[in-house]
Design a protein that fits this description.
Helices cover 33% and strands 13% of the residues. It is α/β, with parallel strands linked by helices. The protein has a domain of 151 residues. The protein has an eight-stranded parallel beta sheet with strand order 1-2-3-4-5-6-7-8. About 8% of the residues have low confidence.
Protein backbone atom coordinates (compact mmCIF):
# COMPACT_ATOMS: atom_id res chain seq x y z
CA UNK A 1 0.00 0.00 0.00
CA UNK A 2 1.61 3.29 -1.09
CA UNK A 3 2.18 5.97 1.52
CA UNK A 4 0.29 9.20 0.86
CA UNK A 5 3.22 11.50 1.52
CA UNK A 6 5.50 13.38 -0.87
CA UNK A 7 8.59 11.31 -1.62
CA UNK A 8 10.93 14.09 -0.47
CA UNK A 9 9.20 14.27 2.92
CA UNK A 10 9.18 10.50 3.27
CA UNK A 11 12.91 10.36 2.58
CA UNK A 12 13.54 12.94 5.31
CA UNK A 13 11.43 10.96 7.79
CA UNK A 14 13.16 7.68 6.98
CA UNK A 15 16.61 9.27 7.14
CA UNK A 16 15.80 10.42 10.67
CA UNK A 17 14.02 7.24 11.82
CA UNK A 18 16.26 4.46 10.49
CA UNK A 19 19.33 5.16 12.70
CA UNK A 20 17.11 5.37 15.79
CA UNK A 21 14.99 2.28 15.24
CA UNK A 22 16.26 -0.86 17.06
CA UNK A 23 15.18 -3.03 14.11
CA UNK A 24 15.43 -1.17 10.79
CA UNK A 25 14.24 -4.29 8.94
CA UNK A 26 10.80 -3.74 10.48
CA UNK A 27 10.58 -0.40 8.69
CA UNK A 28 11.58 -1.95 5.37
CA UNK A 29 8.73 -4.47 5.64
CA UNK A 30 6.11 -1.72 5.90
CA UNK A 31 5.53 -1.38 2.15
CA UNK A 32 7.34 -1.79 -1.16
CA UNK A 33 7.61 1.99 -1.52
CA UNK A 34 9.23 2.38 1.89
CA UNK A 35 11.46 -0.64 1.23
CA UNK A 36 12.87 0.96 -1.91
CA UNK A 37 13.53 4.31 -0.25
CA UNK A 38 14.79 2.91 3.07
CA UNK A 39 17.04 0.36 1.36
CA UNK A 40 18.80 3.12 -0.55
CA UNK A 41 19.20 5.23 2.60
CA UNK A 42 20.61 2.33 4.62
CA UNK A 43 23.24 1.44 2.06
CA UNK A 44 24.27 4.94 1.06
CA UNK A 45 24.65 5.96 4.72
CA UNK A 46 26.25 2.96 6.40
CA UNK A 47 26.23 2.92 10.20
CA UNK A 48 27.77 0.28 12.45
CA UNK A 49 27.44 0.05 16.22
CA UNK A 50 29.47 -3.10 16.93
CA UNK A 51 32.30 -5.16 15.48
CA UNK A 52 29.90 -8.09 15.15
CA UNK A 53 27.53 -6.03 13.03
CA UNK A 54 30.41 -4.91 10.83
CA UNK A 55 31.69 -8.49 10.45
CA UNK A 56 28.21 -9.79 9.56
CA UNK A 57 27.80 -7.08 6.95
CA UNK A 58 31.08 -8.07 5.30
CA UNK A 59 30.27 -11.79 5.37
CA UNK A 60 26.89 -11.08 3.74
CA UNK A 61 28.49 -9.23 0.84
CA UNK A 62 31.56 -11.38 0.23
CA UNK A 63 30.90 -11.39 -3.51
CA UNK A 64 30.89 -7.58 -3.85
CA UNK A 65 27.11 -7.68 -4.32
CA UNK A 66 26.39 -4.29 -2.77
CA UNK A 67 23.66 -2.65 -4.81
CA UNK A 68 24.72 0.94 -4.17
CA UNK A 69 27.86 2.66 -3.00
CA UNK A 70 27.97 4.46 0.37
CA UNK A 71 28.15 8.23 0.58
CA UNK A 72 28.83 8.25 4.32
CA UNK A 73 30.16 5.71 6.82
CA UNK A 74 29.57 5.98 10.56
CA UNK A 75 31.32 3.61 12.99
CA UNK A 76 29.94 4.23 16.48
CA UNK A 77 31.58 1.26 18.18
CA UNK A 78 32.35 0.58 21.81
CA UNK A 79 35.49 -1.49 21.31
CA UNK A 80 35.58 -4.39 23.76
CA UNK A 81 38.56 -6.37 25.00
CA UNK A 82 41.01 -3.92 23.41
CA UNK A 83 40.17 -5.36 19.98
CA UNK A 84 41.23 -2.25 18.09
CA UNK A 85 43.09 -4.24 15.43
CA UNK A 86 39.93 -6.23 14.69
CA UNK A 87 37.92 -3.06 14.19
CA UNK A 88 40.39 -1.45 11.81
CA UNK A 89 40.98 -4.72 9.98
CA UNK A 90 37.23 -4.94 9.37
CA UNK A 91 37.10 -1.28 8.36
CA UNK A 92 39.92 -1.87 5.88
CA UNK A 93 37.93 -4.72 4.31
CA UNK A 94 34.80 -2.57 4.28
CA UNK A 95 36.47 0.30 2.43
CA UNK A 96 38.06 -1.94 -0.20
CA UNK A 97 34.81 -3.88 -0.63
CA UNK A 98 32.80 -0.70 -1.15
CA UNK A 99 35.32 0.71 -3.62
CA UNK A 100 34.63 -2.30 -5.86
CA UNK A 101 30.94 -1.40 -6.24
CA UNK A 102 30.37 -0.29 -9.87
CA UNK A 103 28.62 2.91 -8.80
CA UNK A 104 31.24 3.83 -6.19
CA UNK A 105 33.15 7.09 -6.45
CA UNK A 106 36.88 6.37 -6.37
CA UNK A 107 39.97 8.55 -6.67
CA UNK A 108 42.94 8.12 -8.99
CA UNK A 109 44.40 5.50 -6.64
CA UNK A 110 41.20 3.45 -6.60
CA UNK A 111 40.29 4.44 -3.04
CA UNK A 112 36.69 4.89 -1.97
CA UNK A 113 35.56 8.53 -1.87
CA UNK A 114 32.79 9.43 0.60
CA UNK A 115 31.26 12.67 1.81
CA UNK A 116 31.69 11.76 5.48
CA UNK A 117 33.69 9.24 7.51
CA UNK A 118 32.83 9.40 11.20
CA UNK A 119 34.49 7.29 13.90
CA UNK A 120 33.32 7.27 17.49
CA UNK A 121 35.52 4.72 19.21
CA UNK A 122 38.57 4.14 21.36
CA UNK A 123 42.09 3.13 20.48
CA UNK A 124 44.36 1.31 22.92
CA UNK A 125 47.92 1.96 24.02
CA UNK A 126 48.76 -1.75 24.33
CA UNK A 127 47.43 -2.72 20.90
CA UNK A 128 50.29 -4.50 19.04
CA UNK A 129 48.53 -3.88 15.73
CA UNK A 130 48.01 -0.15 16.07
CA UNK A 131 49.47 0.20 12.58
CA UNK A 132 46.09 -1.00 11.28
CA UNK A 133 44.85 2.54 11.87
CA UNK A 134 46.94 3.56 8.87
CA UNK A 135 46.15 0.45 6.83
CA UNK A 136 42.41 1.09 7.15
CA UNK A 137 42.31 4.86 6.78
CA UNK A 138 44.63 4.81 3.77
CA UNK A 139 41.97 2.87 1.84
CA UNK A 140 39.48 5.75 1.87
CA UNK A 141 39.51 9.40 0.80
CA UNK A 142 36.72 11.28 2.63
CA UNK A 143 35.70 14.89 2.19
CA UNK A 144 34.90 15.19 5.89
CA UNK A 145 36.55 13.09 8.58
CA UNK A 146 35.66 12.98 12.27
CA UNK A 147 37.16 10.84 15.02
CA UNK A 148 35.70 11.58 18.43
CA UNK A 149 35.56 9.72 21.72
CA UNK A 150 32.54 7.78 23.02
CA UNK A 151 32.22 10.12 26.01
CA UNK A 152 29.28 12.57 26.10
CA UNK A 153 30.07 16.15 25.00
CA UNK A 154 30.17 17.53 28.56
CA UNK A 155 32.64 14.88 29.78
CA UNK A 156 36.36 15.45 29.35
CA UNK A 157 37.60 11.89 28.86
CA UNK A 158 41.34 12.32 28.60
CA UNK A 159 43.58 10.61 31.10
CA UNK A 160 46.42 12.03 33.13
CA UNK A 161 48.32 8.78 32.72
CA UNK A 162 48.07 5.61 30.69
CA UNK A 163 47.93 3.11 33.55
CA UNK A 164 45.35 2.90 36.36
CA UNK A 165 46.30 4.67 39.58
CA UNK A 166 44.52 6.07 42.58
CA UNK A 167 45.27 9.62 41.52
CA UNK A 168 42.52 12.13 40.73
CA UNK A 169 41.46 11.93 37.12
CA UNK A 170 42.34 8.25 36.90
CA UNK A 171 38.88 7.44 35.53
CA UNK A 172 39.39 9.68 32.51
CA UNK A 173 40.56 7.98 29.34
CA UNK A 174 42.25 8.96 26.12
CA UNK A 175 40.27 7.82 23.11
CA UNK A 176 42.96 8.45 20.48
CA UNK A 177 46.08 7.30 22.32
CA UNK A 178 49.54 8.72 21.51
CA UNK A 179 50.51 5.46 19.79
CA UNK A 180 47.69 5.95 17.28
CA UNK A 181 48.64 9.51 16.35
CA UNK A 182 51.55 8.73 13.94
CA UNK A 183 49.59 6.21 11.80
CA UNK A 184 46.57 8.52 11.90
CA UNK A 185 48.53 11.54 10.66
CA UNK A 186 50.27 9.39 8.06
CA UNK A 187 46.90 8.29 6.67
CA UNK A 188 45.51 11.83 6.77
CA UNK A 189 48.41 13.08 4.66
CA UNK A 190 46.97 11.10 1.75
CA UNK A 191 43.41 12.40 2.09
CA UNK A 192 43.52 14.76 -0.86
CA UNK A 193 39.76 15.47 -0.81
CA UNK A 194 39.57 16.42 2.86
CA UNK A 195 37.76 19.69 3.54
CA UNK A 196 36.82 19.32 7.23
CA UNK A 197 38.80 17.47 9.89
CA UNK A 198 37.68 16.99 13.49
CA UNK A 199 39.73 15.13 16.11
CA UNK A 200 38.81 15.05 19.80
CA UNK A 201 39.86 13.17 22.95
CA UNK A 202 43.38 12.83 21.60
CA UNK A 203 46.64 12.52 23.52
CA UNK A 204 49.92 13.58 21.95
CA UNK A 205 53.08 11.89 23.27
CA UNK A 206 54.08 13.16 26.70
CA UNK A 207 57.66 14.46 27.10
CA UNK A 208 57.89 12.41 30.30
CA UNK A 209 56.92 9.19 28.56
CA UNK A 210 59.24 9.94 25.64
CA UNK A 211 61.92 12.49 26.66
CA UNK A 212 63.60 12.28 23.26
CA UNK A 213 60.43 13.02 21.30
CA UNK A 214 60.64 15.87 18.82
CA UNK A 215 57.74 18.40 19.09
CA UNK A 216 57.97 18.86 15.32
CA UNK A 217 57.68 15.15 14.61
CA UNK A 218 53.93 14.86 15.12
CA UNK A 219 52.63 17.87 13.26
CA UNK A 220 49.20 17.49 11.61
CA UNK A 221 49.81 16.99 7.89
CA UNK A 222 49.29 19.85 5.47
CA UNK A 223 46.33 19.02 3.23
CA UNK A 224 45.84 21.68 0.51
CA UNK A 225 42.07 21.10 0.30
CA UNK A 226 41.51 21.45 4.08
CA UNK A 227 39.33 24.37 5.15
CA UNK A 228 38.42 23.62 8.77
CA UNK A 229 40.53 21.82 11.38
CA UNK A 230 38.91 21.20 14.79
CA UNK A 231 41.14 19.84 17.56
CA UNK A 232 39.35 19.31 20.86
CA UNK A 233 40.05 17.90 24.32
CA UNK A 234 43.69 17.24 23.52
CA UNK A 235 46.68 16.92 25.84
CA UNK A 236 50.43 17.50 25.49
CA UNK A 237 50.00 19.69 22.43
CA UNK A 238 53.04 21.90 21.92
CA UNK A 239 52.37 25.40 20.59
CA UNK A 240 55.17 24.67 18.12
CA UNK A 241 53.10 21.78 16.76
CA UNK A 242 50.27 24.15 15.85
CA UNK A 243 52.63 26.89 14.68
CA UNK A 244 54.50 24.42 12.46
CA UNK A 245 51.23 23.27 10.93
CA UNK A 246 50.21 26.88 10.25
CA UNK A 247 53.66 27.63 8.82
CA UNK A 248 53.50 24.67 6.44
CA UNK A 249 50.06 25.75 5.30
CA UNK A 250 51.17 29.35 4.82
CA UNK A 251 54.11 28.37 2.62
CA UNK A 252 52.00 26.23 0.26
CA UNK A 253 48.77 26.54 -1.72
CA UNK A 254 45.93 26.16 0.77
CA UNK A 255 42.25 26.74 1.50
CA UNK A 256 42.56 26.87 5.28
CA UNK A 257 39.97 29.10 6.95
CA UNK A 258 39.82 27.99 10.58
CA UNK A 259 41.91 26.08 13.11
CA UNK A 260 39.70 25.71 16.18
CA UNK A 261 41.41 24.56 19.37
CA UNK A 262 38.90 23.64 22.09
CA UNK A 263 40.14 22.55 25.53
CA UNK A 264 43.62 21.90 24.18
CA UNK A 265 46.31 21.59 26.86
CA UNK A 266 50.05 22.09 26.65
CA UNK A 267 50.51 19.30 29.20
CA UNK A 268 48.03 17.26 31.20
CA UNK A 269 44.48 18.41 31.87
CA UNK A 270 45.67 19.68 35.25
CA UNK A 271 48.03 22.13 33.57
CA UNK A 272 47.68 25.16 31.31
CA UNK A 273 45.51 25.40 28.24
CA UNK A 274 47.03 26.26 24.90
CA UNK A 275 46.31 29.93 24.24
CA UNK A 276 46.51 32.07 21.16
CA UNK A 277 49.46 33.95 22.62
CA UNK A 278 51.36 30.64 22.92
CA UNK A 279 50.81 29.87 19.24
CA UNK A 280 51.74 33.44 18.28
CA UNK A 281 55.00 33.26 20.19
CA UNK A 282 55.86 29.89 18.67
CA UNK A 283 55.04 31.19 15.17
CA UNK A 284 57.26 34.21 15.74
CA UNK A 285 60.18 32.05 16.91
CA UNK A 286 59.80 29.64 13.99
CA UNK A 287 59.72 32.55 11.56
CA UNK A 288 62.96 33.94 13.00
CA UNK A 289 64.64 30.52 13.04
CA UNK A 290 63.75 29.96 9.39
CA UNK A 291 65.55 33.11 8.26
CA UNK A 292 68.54 32.78 5.98
CA UNK A 293 71.35 35.35 5.97
CA UNK A 294 70.07 36.90 2.76
CA UNK A 295 66.62 37.34 4.29
CA UNK A 296 67.60 39.22 7.44
CA UNK A 297 66.49 42.54 5.99
CA UNK A 298 62.95 41.21 5.69
CA UNK A 299 62.71 39.54 9.09
CA UNK A 300 60.11 41.97 10.43
CA UNK A 301 57.82 41.41 7.45
CA UNK A 302 58.22 37.64 7.80
CA UNK A 303 57.36 37.68 11.50
CA UNK A 304 54.36 39.95 10.96
CA UNK A 305 53.07 37.69 8.16
CA UNK A 306 53.37 34.64 10.43
CA UNK A 307 51.50 36.36 13.25
CA UNK A 308 48.78 37.61 10.91
CA UNK A 309 48.24 34.09 9.60
CA UNK A 310 47.89 32.72 13.13
CA UNK A 311 45.47 35.47 14.17
CA UNK A 312 43.41 35.01 11.03
CA UNK A 313 42.77 31.28 11.34
CA UNK A 314 43.43 30.13 14.93
CA UNK A 315 40.67 30.18 17.55
CA UNK A 316 41.38 29.00 21.11
CA UNK A 317 38.37 28.13 23.27
CA UNK A 318 37.75 26.92 26.80
CA UNK A 319 34.61 24.82 26.70
CA UNK A 320 34.82 22.39 29.63
CA UNK A 321 35.45 24.13 32.96
CA UNK A 322 36.44 22.54 36.25
CA UNK A 323 34.79 23.28 39.57
CA UNK A 324 38.21 23.42 41.22
CA UNK A 325 41.77 23.00 40.02
CA UNK A 326 43.29 23.10 36.59
CA UNK A 327 43.32 26.02 34.18
CA UNK A 328 39.82 27.48 34.43
CA UNK A 329 40.48 30.31 31.98
CA UNK A 330 39.65 32.93 34.60
CA UNK A 331 42.61 35.17 33.81
CA UNK A 332 41.76 36.80 30.49
CA UNK A 333 45.05 38.70 30.54
CA UNK A 334 46.74 35.49 29.44
CA UNK A 335 44.90 35.74 26.12
CA UNK A 336 46.60 38.97 25.03
CA UNK A 337 48.55 38.92 21.78
CA UNK A 338 52.23 39.53 21.25
CA UNK A 339 51.85 42.90 19.57
CA UNK A 340 53.65 44.76 22.35
CA UNK A 341 56.39 42.13 22.47
CA UNK A 342 56.83 42.33 18.71
CA UNK A 343 57.09 46.11 18.76
CA UNK A 344 59.68 45.95 21.53
CA UNK A 345 61.98 43.71 19.49
CA UNK A 346 64.75 45.28 17.51
CA UNK A 347 63.68 43.91 14.14
Amino acid sequence: MPVSLPTELLIDILTFALPLHPGPADILRTSSQIFTLAFHILYTHLRFTSTRQLALFLSTFEDHSLRCAPRSIDCDIDVENNATSDVFQLMCSLFTRCSAVPTAEVDDEGRLVVDLLRLRMNSHAQDPNIYMVYEALSQINPRRFTWVGPAPPHHFSIAVGYTPTNAPGDSLRIQIVPQAVPPLFRALSGHSNLVELKLTHIGFPSPKSDPESDPFELVPPHIPSLRVFYLGQATFVSPYTIASFIGAVQSSPNNLQTVRLVDVYKGSIWGLRLRLSDVEEAAMMLALLSLRPEGLLHRKELVIAALEMVRRVVICEAQTERIIGGDRDEDNTLMVTLLAKLESLDL
